[in-house]
Amino acid sequence: MRDKAALAAQKAAPFTRALVALCLCSFAASVYAQLSDPMAPPGAQPAGGSDSVTRGTPTELQGILSGPARRAALINGAVVQVGEMIPGNGELLSIDADSAVVRSGERQIVLRLHPELRKRDAKP
Questions:
Q1: Which residue of 7, 34, 60, 111 has the lowest C-beta tally within 10 Å?
Q2: Can you list the pairs that 51-56 forms with residues at least 24 positions away whose Cβ atoms lie under 8 Å?
Q3: From edge to edge, which strands make up the β-sheet containing 99-104?
Q4: Burial class (CB in 10 A: 0-12, 13-18, 19+), 100
């Protein structure tokens, strides 16, 4: 009787290992999905988490890329050069050191890299 039980356990071992591996993979995928991007700016939403990206006006300047041959802005998760259309209704008009100007419809919108920061004159 003991030999039959051992034989049954040996036959079931690969199936058991596969089942455990499948459960671990499923658990790891759900944990990974909850991780946030450490390089994302504070308050940034994960990709696909906001409807404003697909419709309406461009809302967030996330970065400025500049090099000797090119300048581009990262707006709503898309890299856009001057003159190109931004996913979400708008055209990139210009890029500065910490801002970008976008035309959305008839309006021109200034997107700032750090909108909560305001430049003030130095006091003597």
A1: 34
A2: 52/76, 52/88, 53/77, 53/87, 53/88, 54/87, 54/88, 55/88, 55/89, 56/88, 56/89
A3: 91-95, 99-104, 107-112
A4: buried
Q: Is 24 helix (H, G, I), strand (E, B) or coil?
A: helix
Are 92 and 100 contacting, i.e. CB atoms less than 8 angstroms apart? yes
| Cα dihedral 122/66/108/113 (nearest 10) | -50
Tokens in use for 113?
Answer: 């890299």
User: What phi and psi, each to the nearest 5 degrees, are found at residue 66?
Assistant: -135, 145
As a whole-number percent, the residues of the chain with pLDDT over 90 amount to 11
Q: Which amino acid is at 10?
A: Q
Cα pseudo-dihedral 35, 113, 111, 54, rounded to 10:
-10
* Dihedral Cα 113, 114, 119, 124, nearest 10 deg: -120
Rounded distance, CA 75 to CA 88, Å? 10
Neighbours of 4 (CB within 10 A): 8
